[in-house]
Amino acid sequence: MVNKIIKSVFFGNYFIGVLAVALSLETIIQLQLPFNSVVYYALLFCGTIMYYTYAYAGVLQSNSLDNQRSVWYQQHQIQVKFSQLFLLLLCCIFGVTELLHCIANLSLLSWIYWLIMVAIGLAGILYYGLLPHSLVKLNLRNTGWLKAFVIGFVWAGCVSLLPIIILQLEHGPYFADPVLVVWLFIKNWMFCTVNAIMFDMKDYADDSNRQLKTFVVRFGLRNTILYVLTPLCIVGIFFTLVFAYYRHFTLLPVLFNVLPFLLLLMVTYTMQRQRNIFFYLIVIDGLVFIKAICGIAGMAFVAT
Which residue, of 87, 238, 239, 298, has the fewest CB within 10 Å? Predict the structure, then answer.
């Protein structure tokens, strides 16, 4: 029973939905802004699950049984289809409710915010190649080394910038320090990009057979760890220390914000051998959750 629940939560991408909400809360708390509405967080949670589950829609019509996740989707076709339809219904309800709540402030939103939303949305759409092929024949998911940075960009945009934009629509103009916003965006981009590259390690053999030139396929596991993941983690730590200096953080807030990158760095050096899929879904994605918790906890020791 417990095993079935664990598979449903992680294979069904419900934990990914939790991560999106957790990182969005971290952004709001670190910027010391009012929380977004519950409806927005519910929309974000449902939309994230739908988006990630879409990647496995092909599994439902194929005989791809090369890993536990594919097997699970193959065995739960009806459940997954019903879940997607139900989540779509919830997204429509939450989306309309949020739109009616925000409609008065739409005309007040700055053009830069509209540009950001278009950029995030377009990257998310092109990642799966959802636009008609007669218009754009581009699927960023198949672009090899660029793939991880696109995933990181979409995640960073959704959890670092979108909560601020929605806040402007829900409550009217709110000032957010642009330096802090840029820092949060870069920190989340680096962290989520490293997370995505680590997931590519799981698909090394399959990507190699498909000639998809991800970092792991191009450089191999060891070189990817040494020359790609390690520098990206160091960049994340560097920006964290710069931000800490800018905000005059004391030791505890600095440690809380640096700790997730140190843990990420430690885990990367344990990945030179093949790991079970649950290691990626629980441990590696769990680091994203730890990052959100550490970012929130660190603010308890920041003088306001």
Answer: 238
**Alpha carbons 179 and 291: distance in angstroms, whole number:** 20
Q: How does residue 66 score in pLDDT terms, banded at 50, 70 and 90? A: low
CB half-sphere exposure, 97, CA atoms < 13 A: 13
Which 3 state secondary structure label does DSSP give 276?
A: coil
Q: Which of 277, 291, 260, 292 is nearest to 199 (CA)?
A: 277
Written as six digits, the tokens of 103 are 């409609």
Q: Using one digit for the tens of pLDDT, what is the confidence trace for 157-169?
A: 999 999 999 999 9
Rounded CA gap, 201 and 271, in Å?
A: 8
For 202, the token pair is 């799981």
Considering its fold, how many domains does the chain have in total? 1
Among residues 70, 96, 66, 72, the alpha carbon closest in space to that of 9 is found at 72
pLDDT tens digit string along 205-220? 555 445 555 666 666 7
CB 37 within 8 A of CB 101: yes
- Contacts of residue 91, defined as CB under 8 A and 6 or more positions apart, other chains included, come to 43, 46, 47, 50
- Cα 204 to Cα 141: distance, rounded to the nearest angstrom: 15
Inter-residue contact 298 to 257 (CB < 8 Å): yes
Phi/psi at 257 (5° precision): -80, -25
Distance (Å, rounded) from C-alpha 129 to C-alpha 127? 6
For 209, the domain range is: 2-301
